[in-house]
Amino acid sequence: MATTATTSVEERKRLVRRLVGRSRGFAEEYGLQVTNNPASLFQVLCLSILLRRSPDVRRAVEPVLALRSQGWGSPARMARSQPEARAGLLRDHGRRGDADRLADTLGDLAVALVERYQGDLRRLRAGARYAPARERTMLRELPGVDAEVVELFLREVQALWSETPPVADRDALIAARKLGLGRTAADLAVLAGGGESEKLAWLVGALARIEVENTYDEIAR
Questions:
Q1: Which of 25, 112, 117, 124 is packed most tightly, with the most Cβ within 10 A?
Q2: What are the structural domain ranges in the chain?
Q3: pLDDT at residue number 2
């Protein structure tokens, strides 16, 4: 569909205020709290892996919520679960074609986090000495995590991991270009009032939702 790019600085700022005012980030809009504790960070990483594999956001979110409801919302508990049980739950929540492979990936991820970081991604961050490039490298060393998963994860936690902003994933940048808000994460950071502002995370999350849900017409209204 065609979109009308926002042109003037004031128009861009007004649109940013609208987007930030209606969003608290991508994951939280779908029922996952983003807080700096081990279980929350693990769930966001699992969501990022599923989003990487599915263009349908509901098919990514529902299995993560189901895994949490089953009591497997932390690395230690996920690591103790059985692959067949994980696969069955994933199939029940829409992941039929890749349930077995995904169940193995999430199990391997949980085990790796327990063995390397005592189940706490904050230890990975500390081990990287809070250097964003090193954090990205260490995240990519985890099972199921590639460069795109890393960007999806950091998109969500950048308000908490203050060294990482500005981060904007592919979907957010597509929406930003279509709406005339810029072409880079740095462009969005300027509009949000700075890279360390949590408004940046909210703005990026809102833009990503607009792209994946194709709600440009709603924004135009």
A1: 25
A2: 1-33+159-221, 35-144
A3: 47
